[in-house]
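Ligand-bound model needed. copper (II) ion.
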Amino acid sequence: MFKIVMLFSIAMSTVLLAGNIEVKDAYVRAVPPNLPNSASFMTIINNGATAVDLTRADSTLADTLELHEHTMKNGMMVMAQVPKITIPAHGSVMLKPGGYHIMIIGLKKPIKPHDSVKMINLHFSDGETLTLKNVPVKSVMGGMKMKNMKMNGMKMNGMKSN
Ligand SMILES: [Cu+2]
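Prediction:
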């Protein structure tokens, strides 16, 4: 089991560097063609001695990219836009389903599993911009449990009310 996990993480590791910031394992969630929104997930590592904020993201993929966070409210999973995602000094933040994510709103074309997204720009508070290139599109639903699928439903409802 350990060996399998190791191989998987090596295969998925694509590390990108700008200043003290490193991004690895970035991917975009595949969505059915009728859904206008998706999300991107990744691990952001800060090798510097001061905290750095991810302040903004953009891409040719969609009109709007927003920084979002999922939280539990009265036992319900809700998501909301956040002004920034802080990566602590000598620390990391994982953007993952059910937590922080980069919301992709108004896809200009459908994204399917095994496609890749040409580029996503990440803008940081230290003035650095990191361009993720050929970000893989992955089907997140496949590996998820029933409980998480319900969360996804709420997520889409949440988007419509925005
Ligand atoms: Cu979101």
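Residues 146-161 form the longest helix (16 residues).
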